[in-house]
Amino acid sequence: SPTGDPTSSPTASPTGIPSLVPTGSPTALPTGHPSASPTASPTGIPSLVPTGSPTASPTLAPRANPTASPTGIPSLVPTGSPTASPSASPTARPTISPSGQPSAEPSNFACEVAVRVSCTTDDGTICDDIPTPNATCSFGSPLEGLQFTYIPGNTCEKSRNQQYEVNPSCEDIAPLDNTPVVVDCAGTNGEEMVVLVTDIGSGESLFTVQSLAASSPLPLSINCTILSNATSPPEPLQWNVIDTSGNVELDLKEAYGALQVEACRGIAVEDKVCIEQLVLESVLHNFGADTINVTLLHSITNEGPPIDLLGNVVPNQLESAENATV
User: Fold this and answer.
1) SS3 of residue 156 by DSSP
2) Cα gap 50→30, rounded to integer Å
3) Which of 8, 56, 243, 266 is 20 to 30 A from 279 (CA-CA)?
């Protein structure tokens, strides 16, 4: 009973009416009212005015204005000035000067020279065949001559000889320097002697001491005085007494003060020589294909500065396979 009545009545009535009206009404009313007013109003008004106005105005105005103005003015002046000025000046100067000069000479010419040096003594002995001398100058008989070099600065304290150790016979009178000196030798008993090459440089020249009469023995002992050549008369700087009897030890390379023994000569005995006069001959051979000119040629020795030999090159201009002798 309760099920039949309520179902039949509400179902037929509410279904037909509420479905057609309320669906259209509530849907249109609630949806249209709240949604039509806010939606249509905010959407229609803000969308039409702001969208059309801002889009057309900002896009056309700013784009045409800034683009035409900044692009035309700054780009014509700065671009033309800096580009032409810096690149033309620095590029031309460094490129032409450095690369043209160094590459031309080495690439076109080749200097191919062989140098052969021959060494002999005055009598023609090959330097490699020079025997090492026996250093002893004590022949058991008087010496005929002695050869010395002058060593500036060598005081008596720097003497290196066996005679000085037994009987020191050397005295320093004044300082020795690098100026030329004069050496005067005589027998301790007043015998006259000869000194060859009296004006002596600092280690530049050999000088020989011998008796006044050629091929005569030296006195049994000699006194050699070193004098300054910078004063007039020459002032003595140092003197040495050397036993030359041949019975007291006397060796090559011994130093008697500033005098160093380089050679000794005895009667009827072979000379003992530490320093030989050498003849050096250099042959330059151009084994290349180009003609060359020698621009620098030095001889380097154990002592002293290099010796310039350029002026001795004959001929100086060497053709291919040609030799020059110095």
Assistant:
1) helix
2) 29
3) 266
